[in-house]
Amino acid sequence: MKHFLSLQDLDRNELMTIIQNGIAIKRQPERYATACDRKGALMLFQKTSTRTNLSFQSGINQMGGYAVPMDWNASNFSISPIRYEARYASRNCDFIVARLKKHSDLRELAAYATVPVINGCCDRYHPCQALADLMTIYEVSGTFEGITVTYVGILNNVANSLIAGCAMLGIRLLLVTPIVNEASWDGELMDQAIGSGLVTRMNSLTDAAAQSDYVYTDTWIDMEHYHSADYEAVKDFRMQTMLPYQLNRKALNGSTPYIMHDMPIHPGFEIEEELIESASSVIYQQAENRMHAQKALLLHLMES
């Protein structure tokens, strides 16, 4: 049995197989209509979600399985040690998709679960998003060879998983990240990535975009804090610091890379609205690919 807490839980061949299988499933979904027959996924969510929730529920249902949504805060996970609830939950499902605030809680859940635990997002990593990101690049370009991606935004969980995936697959990644989210910082991952020669930190979005096939941005505000009054000072600081790094036509300065965003989008902040709907945008394709990549992930974990 394998868990999927980060991309580092895979080797390069496993990652490539999941990406290629995701594309195959997308092209011929009917071939996989019973692949998860009677298999159940517990959707254990401590954080709000649209794409993770909908894509996993739709994906396992389309393969003949089922999903059981559970709000962490409305369950006994919120009042009892994780180890006890994990053991019980494992006896009622075949997968646990957990979207938790703390990576440490996710690791404890995996330590005591007897079924595969999938990281649906935590403060350290967002590996399911990275699967869809990489699948989209491969689907659009047909290769990872010679591809350069720029990530512009907060150095956060999304960035970490993209860093891990690009380093593993030989994709050149340029990071324009003026702010580091402390809870997300993974010094070992960053040292390995920089040491690989594939990952470079840059100061200018315009310079990075001029070298890139894809430019990827993300929200500047953690979704669980978006409406929190206690977070206003941090929110204001991030907005003021990051506004010069907005992904817009001016910053691209004539470059025409594909535009990526993991959603939810806040137009006028991290990205101008014109780029979201532009011909170079693959944002909706990227979002759709969450479901296909996760179908492939479920099948991989069933076979492991």
UniProtKB/TrEMBL annotation:
Pfam families: OTCace, OTCace_N. One of its GO terms (biological process) is citrulline biosynthetic process. The keyword Transferase applies. Residues 145-300 form the Aspartate/ornithine carbamoyltransferase Asp/Orn-binding domain. Keywords: Transferase. This is Ornithine carbamoyltransferase. GO terms for molecular function: amino acid binding; ornithine carbamoyltransferase activity. The keyword Transferase applies. Coiled coil: none annotated. Belongs to the aspartate/ornithine carbamoyltransferase superfamily. It comes from the Bacteria.
